[in-house]
Amino acid sequence: MPAIGLRARVALAAAAAIVVALALLGVAVLAVLRAQLDGALDRALRERAVEVARLAASTPDLLLMPGALEGRLGGSALFVQVVDRSGRIVVRSAGLGGRLLPESAATRAALRDRRTAYADARLGADPVRVYAAPLGELGRGPAAGGAVILAGTQGEFEAVVDTTRVLVWVAALVAAVLAGALALLLGGRALAPLRRLASGARVIERSGDASARLPLPPARDDVGELAATLNAMLASLERAREAERRFVADASHELRTPLTALRGNAAYVARHGADPAALADLEADAARLSTMLDDLLALAREDAADAARNELVDLDALARAAIAGDAAAEVESAGEALVRGERAALERAVGNLVANARKHGPPGGAIRVEVAREGDHVRLTVADEGDGLGPAEAAHAFERFWRGAGARGEGSGLGLAIVRAIAERHGGAARVDGARFTLCLPAVMELSRSVRTTRRHDPSPQLPH
Q1: Dist CA 457 CA 49 (whole Å)
Q2: Domains in the chain, please, with CATH?
Q3: What pLDDT digit, counting tens, does each position of 204-260 carry?
Q4: Given 3-state DSSP classes, what are the helix, strand and coil percentages for the chain, each rounded to the nearest 5?
Q5: How many C-beta atoms surround the C-beta of residue 7 within 10 A?
Q6: Which pTM value belongs to this model?
Q7: Separation between Cα atoms, residue 183 and residue 396, nearest integer Å
Q8: How many angstroms separate the CA atoms of 397 and 438, rounded?
């Protein structure tokens, strides 16, 4: 069975809502109408009973004259029956013919309990409303001490109620049809921008062109916001695809250099035989290629990894482990610096920062690692005594395969990119200011106030903050 479209569902919902609303309104209207009609009939019966009681008390002979009890209540027939204190009929309406008003609880209440009462009954096939009232016991008429019983037919009232009920249901059906048609019309117009978005998305899906964009509707409404969000997502995908393309191109270029050197040295060994220099070159090329592949795999793992595991890691301990055995390095911290994440990944990030300082700082220069609390984050900063990066170079420092103009020695250009990827996966960030490279991660507890400084060598000149 085919699924019902959104437009049709909206139209059906609108029609159903109209039907339910009008049905509830109709029930309320019919209840009020019936209560009003019943109340009007009860008042008319009571007023007519008062007239008959006055006639029986003042001029009882006139009560017995033909036509004295005849009358109508609006459009309804009125029947009157007067009985004495024993319940025998004294006089009754000619309209009753050979019929008698039914015995009811109202009649018994008027004769026995001497009080007025209402009751519903049937006169033949017609529903009637009965009202009975006791007559005064003083007087010379035959009805003294008896009761007057009145009955008004409800047939015409029922006809009014039935007609109203039919009108309510007809109005509900007509309103439902109109509401459904109007909902279809307005729904079609409202969903037109969504259909255009879907059409544009299908075109992009078939072409695979991430540079294409979805059409923006003229109105800046929810659909316009959705289109803008989807276009922003497409722009992000385009940037990611371009970054992936550049990454593949850069990786191919960077891997080609050690591979070419490795093949050349292998060919030399094949022609001239092995010698210590050639074997050393082979070993160096293989090590460089292995390091680059390891860095590439690390970046790939960071790109594909889920959120970091919830391990408790002390950055102060990681910093001390990273500089272990280096007499030119020191750690300055303000107590424990606990964060949550993957210990192995954070070890690599801290190690890459320290290795970067060793490589690009002056030979024999001091390296200082600072671990401190900044609000709800822990900051780990590695500084060397070099000139550092200028603003233009700092903007590219954490890009993949980027190496500064003054970089010394061979390298993959991936170390700092790995640091940033690890930081972002842990909900933090990496930044650079001159020769100061900082890893900033969310903290998990208050740091102690005591400052601990570990010096592995004689004091070296302090670096500016």
Answers
A1: 121
A2: 6-161 (3.30.450.20), 222-303 (1.10.287.130), 308-455 (3.30.565.10)
A3: 778 777 778 777 777 677 777 888 888 888 887 877 777 677 767 766 766 776 777
A4: 50, 20, 30
A5: 18
A6: 0.47
A7: 55
A8: 12
